[in-house]
Amino acid sequence: MAVEYQNSSYGERGYADKREESYSRGGYNSGGGSWGGSRDNRGSWGGNYGSGSRASTPTEPLGEVDWSKKELTPFQKDFYTESSIVRDMTQHDVEDFRKEHQIVVQGRHAPKPIPTFEASGFPKSVLEELTAAGFPSPTPVQCQAWPIAMKGHDLISIAATGSGKTLAFLLPGIVHIQAQPRLLRGDGPIGLVLAPTRELACQILVECEKFGRSSGIRAVCCYGGVPKGQQARDLRYGAEIVIATPGRLIDFLEFGTTNLHRVTYLVLDEADRMLDMGFEPQVRKICSQIRPDRQSLFFSATWPKEVQALARELCKEDPVQITIGSAGKKANEKINQNIIVCEEAEKLDRLKTLMETVLDGNSKVIIFAETKRGTDSLQRTLKASGIAALGIHGDKTQQERDWTLHQFKSGRCMVLIATDVASRGLDVKDITCVINYDFPKEIESYIHRIGRTARGTASGTAYSLFTRDNAGMAFDLIKILNDCKQKVPAELEALNTRRPAQNNSRWGNGRGGSWGGSWGGANRGGNWGGNRGGNWGGNRGGYQSNRW
Ligand SMILES: Nc1ncnc2c1ncn2[C@@H]1O[C@H](COP(=O)(O)OP(=O)(O)OP(=O)(O)O)[C@@H](O)[C@H]1O
Ligand SMILES: [Mg+2]
Q1: Is the pLDDT of residue 85 over 60?
Q2: Are residues 44 and 137 in the same domain?
Q3: Which of 389, 339, 396 is CA-nearest to residue 366?
Q4: pTM score, two decimals?
Q5: Alpha helices per DSSP H over 52-192
């Protein structure tokens, strides 16, 4: 899946006749020639490039690269010049601005935030795209992430769902890529974005095409579940930016279809998901193939402690961390969150009643279920009640998944039932309501799921059915509801048996005071230790499970 921008200009830049056949060994020389050897190792592949069948031929596994022995060509990564409006901001102004937009910065080298698109230093073509998109001003995460990324710093950026993180990493990436020497034959990408799901990778590609078009940047998306042939051809043709799910990218690296020798701008979107136990080995493998002095950027709405050390390990320098809102584990404040405490047996009736109130012909609704089977069963039940809904989960073919998402995006189908495969990153206009039919097993999932509504400048509503089986999640949920000034039902408080800890909380500072009245009762504290392990450790690995 690739889009060619400005074909003619690619001709000038030397792309036009570089179909895969001409990518055979020997013609490869990337900035200083230090890669010649490794390319030669794949000599036997030369003549086969371009045949679709090659994608199924096994090749050598990815070896460790000894970067200390490589001669690394210096590259430029600081493109930032303060505009006069930013230069004139006093320290006091900066503090006021950050306070107003709830921007918290940790790290020594953070530049001041930028208040306007013009102050970003982006090329005119990119600024024109922003105007054309009709965006009124940069979002808080963009205000602060753009100058940091443009300055070339490693960055960890935590901001609510729907707050514009995609452009926060894509636009500085476009500037970075444009400033590098052009790709030569056999070169892999300069920018690499890793994402956890196929649909999210495709969505980032679309955003990249929209904003990179006028900069002449070629983007390719690599993801599993579809034949490799076209993606392989697009990669060999050459692309400045690759957006990929880890598994498919590793396949291509092992087949020698592409390489990461030129990557100097690396992004992990949904970074906590990419660094958790499910993806960590693959991400490490990919990162080991990239020069260690690359610029690394991590983006997510949630940032559990468990992944923080690994993120820092992947950075060359001490990264700047920005957090928009409190503690980095906060739901989007524009979502009206409703918790319905009920019995398991009541859930279907509750859902049907809810659907009668939320479906108005214009509103798109997404319903999350825990399992693939549960998703299918809900789809049948709703159909029997006269509600047309489509389902998306990991057992559907990619063709079905794409078709379903397309039907939902285009408004041909207004109700989507999904597992967590659709919980992260997806940006579908006009989802006014998210329903958690099954409450998720991790609080991060709750934040991401309900975050499918209230995107950009919109607001939205979420309903979550909560049973006593979910009691272990009550503590974390109450914290989120309180943080967002949402109503906490008494029934939910009653199910909560944990007490706030002072220092050992996953939330950082225990903030015990705000929990006041709800901690009385015989169970006080009794479940803390046990539930911690149960809800957290156990389910981290659960991402890998087959359930969704
Ligand atoms: N400056 C802006 N002003 C208004 N809308 C914007 C702005 N920047 C981006 N958007 C829009 O906001 C929506 C959400 O953006 P995006 O998908 O990047 O959110 P996100 O922060 O990555 O969310 P998630 O955590 O769910 O992945 C998109 O439709 C995007 O086009
Ligand atoms: Mg996103």
Answers
A1: yes
A2: yes
A3: 389
A4: 0.83
A5: 84-87, 91-100, 124-133, 140-150, 165-178
Which of 384-393, 472-481, 536-545 shows the lowest per-residue confidence on average (mean pLDDT)? 536-545
Whether the CB of 116 sits within 6 Å of ligand 1: no
DSSP string spanning 378-447?
HHHHHHHTT---EEE-TTS-HHHHHHHHHHHHHTS--EEEE-GGGSSS---TTEEEEEESS--SSHHHHH
Show Cβ contacts of residue 389 under 8 Å, excluding neighbours closer than 6 positions.
367, 378, 379, 382, 383, 413, 415, 416, 417
3-class SS of residue 99: helix
- Residue 47: per-residue pLDDT: 28
From the CA of 170, how far away is ligand 1's center (Å)? Answer: 12
**Ligand 1 neighbourhood includes 301 CB (under 6 angstroms):** yes
* Mutation probe of ligand 1 site: the residue of 122, 144, 166, 267 with most atoms within 8 A of C-beta: 166
Reading the block at residue 152, the tokens are: 């070339």
**Could you say which DSSP state residue 156 is in?**
E
Q: Which two tokens stand for residue 391?
A: 């389902």
206 CB under 6 A from ligand 1?
A: no
Contacts 24+ apart (CB under 8 A), 520-523: 521/497, 523/497
Pick from 165, 202, 330, 420 the residue to mutate for probing ligand 1's pocket: most ligand atoms within 8 Å of its CB: 165
456 Cα to the center of ligand 1, angstroms: 5
- Which tens digit of pLDDT belongs to each residue from 171-225? 999 999 999 999 999 999 999 999 999 999 999 999 999 999 888 999 999 999 9
The residues facing 391 across adjacent strands are 417
- 435-464 per-position pLDDT tens digit: 999 999 999 999 999 999 999 999 999 999
pLDDT digits (tens, 9 = 90+) for 101-117: 999 999 987 999 999 99
The CATH number given to whatever domain includes residue 258 is 3.40.50.300
Closest ligand 1 atom to Cα of 200: 27
**Listed residue (436, 416, 166) closest to 299, CA to CA:** 166
* Nearest atom, ligand 1, residue 137 CA: 1
Total of domains in the chain: 2
Minimum CA distance residue for ligand 1 atom 8: 164
Q: Please indicate whether residue 215, judged by its CB atom, sits closer than 6 Å to ligand 1.
A: no
* Dist. CA 138 → ligand 2 center (Å): 15
Looking at the chain, the whole-number percentage of residues with pLDDT higher than 70 is 80
Domain match, 315 and 358 both? no
In the structure, ligand 2 is a single-atom ion and the residues with CB under 5 Å from it are 165, 425
Q: Whose CA is nearest to atom 5 of ligand 1?
A: 456
Which residues constitute the domain of residue 135? 1-328
Is the residue at 523 inside a domain?
A: no
Shortest-distance ligand to the CA of residue 114: 1
Say if residue 316 is in the same domain as residue 342: no
